[in-house]
Design goal:
The complex is a heterodimer. Chain A has 13 helices and two strands; from the N terminus they run αααββαααααααααα. Chain A has helices spanning 2-11, 31-68, 71-76, 92-123, 126-141, 144-162, 171-195, 199-207, 212-223, 225-241, 244-249, 267-275, 284-314; strands at residues 80-81, 88-89. Chain A has a two-stranded antiparallel sheet. Chain B is α/β, with parallel strands linked by helices. Chain B has helices at 18-22, 77-83, 114-120, 135-145, 152-162, 166-169, 182-194, 212-225, 238-244, 262-267, 272-278; strands at residues 37-48, 51-62, 66-70, 94-102, 105-106, 121-124, 200-204, 230-234, 247-252, 255-261. In chain B, helix 5 packs across helix 7 (182-194) and helix 7 (182-194) packs parallel to helix 8. The radius of gyration of chain B is 19 Å and the shape is globular. Classes of the chains: A mainly alpha, B alpha/beta. Chain A binds chain B through residues 126, 198, 200-211, 214, 218-219, 222-223, 316-319, and chain B through 13, 22, 85, 87, 90, 92, 115-116, 118-119, 122-123, 125, 127, 129-133, 141-142, 145-146, 178, 189, 192-193, 196.
């Protein structure tokens, strides 16, 4: 007894832990753990670093452009004639072109997308749903160039039959196909938002004598509103960045017009035009694409942040 | 066999008198006056994809009484309860045999509109499920969709008073219902059901998610409500059944084992299995 007590007092005279860990000592080698950890971190860092590098390049080149053209002239100018004399760099015609696309696309994508989402989540039988949802996703997988071609060869001729003044390249047909293009995204994201509303709320509505329409439009949709708005903002920010279809169908004419049947040019299709290489790579017309790209980046970034905020702030917390 | 009550027919929702039907016109059924059976199950079997959950149950529910349905988990008591306002319609693969009658009307008659049926037979769920809206709008929601043309403000107040919630919420009617406590939310759901002036209120374990204090408030409320409404309550809490109900039905494995006056059921049940269950020997 006394010996044991003596031992213990020797091992830790102050009553604290001993300095030996004995059986608990590390036995397995740690180097591999560390290597794997670093490799995984590097993979995760790639996307962050790439993003930062792109932002850096954009900023550098954009600043170079703004040394020649004042920011104010760029943001408020209404004429975009980079390759004429005198060259003018007012970005508003291009912004206006992009807005036409976004506006027209939202006219199609919001009502049709939301309606399909309501159908999928509230009305469709599981079997119907299991067929429809994959088809929607296929629609999202069609290459955008195909949409552009579709606009040019199918939508525009129809528009021309209805409105004879329609130009071959026009904002309307591009907006229509961009609307169709982002429709699956709206439908699918809104469907997710609607399905996140607990079914107990639907039952509560039905128990009060509601029809399916009343339950979905007056309980489920309002309950999922934050998710719905966020998905719409996300889809529209895709419309802002959409390039191939609009380059093909909307034309290359910077044009601040109120007539959607005229040819326009969007911010993205200007970048395409300049990058194709028939312009000298040292002129201001070329460096302007970085300023436009930076502006595009800002717009999509802001709308992504906004949709994130909406989701976070207005989400109803269901148990 | 039974003549259909026009009040339940589909035309009702579009007719100009739709609002008055939500007011709950009294006993316009096909049973002789004074017949106390407001709900009745006749040899009802309910199965999910062929597996019976309720087997051949026959039960009568007297008007302005509280009937408790008790039994161990999975005995089919909720399934039976939810068939009375046809909430099982939304469940895939459910099959119902036998007859369910509301004032003598077969509720599965093709001419019966389930929406109209649910105006007569309200429901309170196991977990409080207020809409993510203000307290006021939760109560006003049902009357609004059913085009109630009276004074909605007054109706909301009355309903909240009847649900013993008015004094707690009268100063914050525009606040979100989700900010209420669980017990308050459940009373709000009761108020929401009362605003439709139903004749029957189905309660599916209404206190199972609540603390003892909230539970006793709801039980007091049930006692008050049975003066006006017929209440069918499913509960796995036998003390609760003993406290609030007039009649108790005991279900086991989907079969009705025994039904009788609550006092008798808990003091001298006729069936051995009832006795085992109410005395806590199993379940």
């Amino acid at each position: 007894m006394t010996e044991v007590a003596l031992d213990r007092s020797l091992a830790s005279p102050d009553g604290g832990p001993t300095s030996e860990v004995g059986a608990l000592a590390k036995k397995r080698g740690r180097p591999l753990e560390i290597v794997i950890r670093i490799a995984l971190f590097a993979s995760a860092a790639v996307s962050v670093v790439t993003t930062l590098a792109i932002i850096g390049t954009l900023a550098k080149e954009a600043f170079a452009f703004f040394e020649k053209v004042p920011v104010i002239d760029f943001l408020t100018g209404t004429e975009w004639t980079p390759n004429f004399h005198p060259a003018k760099f007012g970005v508003l015609p291009l912004v206006c072109g992009t807005l036409w696309i976004v506006f027209g696309a939202s006219l199609i994508a919001i009502p049709v997308g939301l309606s399909s989402a309501i159908y999928l989540s509230e009305y469709a039988k599981p079997r119907t749903r299991s067929i429809l949802k994959p088809v929607l996703e296929i629609l999202a997988g069609i290459p955008t160039i195909v949409y552009g071609f579709f606009a040019l060869t199918f939508v525009s001729p129809i528009l021309k039959t209805i409105f004879p003044s329609t130009q071959i390249y026009n904002a309307a047909s591009a907006a229509i196909v961009v609307g169709i293009m982002i429709l699956p995204m709206v439908a699918s994201l809104c469907d997710d938002a609607l399905r996140s509303v607990p079914s107990s709320l639907r039952q509560g509505a039905y128990a009060l004598g509601a029809t399916s329409l009343e339950a979905s439009t007056r309980v489920v949709v309002p309950g999922a509103l934050s998710g719905i708005i966020a998905s719409i903002v996300l889809a529209l920010s895709r419309a802002v960045g959409e390039t191939m279809a609009v380059s093909l169908a909307a034309g290359m004419t910077p044009n601040m017009t109120l007539n959607p049947l005229e040819s326009i040019q969007t911010m993205t299709s200007y970048i395409v035009e300049q990058s194709k290489g028939d312009v000298a790579h040292d002129g201001p017309g070329y460096s302007a694409i970085f300023a436009i790209a930076a502006l595009l980046f800002l717009i999509t970034l802001v709308s992504n942040v906004v949709s994130h905020r909406i989701l976070k702030r207005f989400r109803e917390v269901y148990e | 066999m039974v003549k259909l009550n026009v009040q339940l027919s589909k035309a009702g929702s579009a007719a100009p008198d739709a609002a008055s039907s939500t007011q709950g016109a009294p006993a316009a059924g096909t049973l002789p006056d004074g017949d106390p059976r407001i709900l009745e199950a006749r040899n009802v079997t309910i199965s999910y994809s062929g597996n019976p959950a309720v087997r051949g149950v026959s039960l009568e529910f007297p008007e302005r009484k509280v009937t408790a349905i008790i039994g161990p988990s999975g005995c089919g008591k909720s399934t039976l309860l939810r068939s009375f306002n046809r909430m099982n319609d939304f469940v895939e693969g459910v099959g119902i045999d036998g007859q369910l009658l509301y004032r003598g009307i077969d509720i599965h008659d093709p001419r019966v509109d389930p929406m109209e049926l649910r105006l007569k037979i309200g429901m309170v769920f196991q977990k409080p499920n207020p809409f993510p809206k203000s307290i006021y709008r939760n109560v006003a929601w049902g009357p609004k969709i059913n085009r109630y043309d009276g004074n909605i403000k007054q109706l909301v107040e009355e309903s909240l008073r009847k649900a013993a919630l008015w004094d707690e919420v009268k100063d914050r009617l525009d606040d979100s219902a989700l900010g209420l406590s669980g017990g308050q939310q459940q009373r709000l759901c009761i108020a929401r059901a009362l605003a439709m002036s139903p004749e029957v209120i189905l309660m599916d374990e209404p206190c199972s998610a609540l603390d003892p204090v909230s539970t006793s408030r709801i039980e007091d409320l049930i006692f008050e409500l049975k003066k006006t409404f017929t209440i069918v309550i499913v509960t796995h809490n036998m003390q609760q059944a003993a406290r609030v109900s007039d009649t108790t039905a005991f279900l086991e494995l989907g079969k009705l084992i025994e039904v009788g006056e609550t006092d008798q059921m808990f003091t001298k049940p006729r069936e051995k299995r009832t006795e085992d269950y109410v005395s806590g020997r199993f379940g």
